[in-house]
Amino acid sequence: MSIYIFNWFFLLALFPVAFFWLRRAWRILIKRDFSEVALKKGVPPPDPEKYAPYEMALNLIGGTVMVVLLVSVLGFQALSSDQWIAVAGSTLWMKLFLSFALSRHAHGGIAGLARNAKAAKSDKTGA
In sequence order, what DSSP letters do the residues of 32-82 get, joined into one string? Predict the structure, then answer.
């Protein structure tokens, strides 16, 4: 009995997730607001316009999948519980992992870490 309650909580949690993802895609595509593109510790990369199309695509695809999933489950009852949970979970995790990878790449990745370490080392020796 309690499993069904968690399913409903998960289903209801998809509404704000879809809203935030579609809102971010709208801000990037229409408003040209790049302040939330590839954030790392709340800071955008030096050139967020370069990574904006990728972030917009991730948010648009993820939000659209969630909306279609919600309509198919609540409106048409076309998917069983296991099916929609699998699609929602896969979409959620893929979007989170890909956004994380994009943010790390936008901030320089391993090369950026090496540059920062070298700059910090030269600051210590030069001071």
Answer: ---TTSS-BTTB--S-HHHHHHHHHHHHHHHHHHHHHHHIIIIIS--S-HH
Q: Which domain holds residue 59?
A: 2-126
pLDDT at res. 126:
63
Please state the domain count of the chain: 1
**Count of positions (residues) in the chain:** 127
Nearest by Cα to 66 from 48, 93, 102: 93
Q: How confident is the model at residue 87 (pLDDT cuts 50, 70, 90)?
A: very high
d(CA 103, CA 42): 10
Residues 6+ apart with CB under 8 A from 74: 11
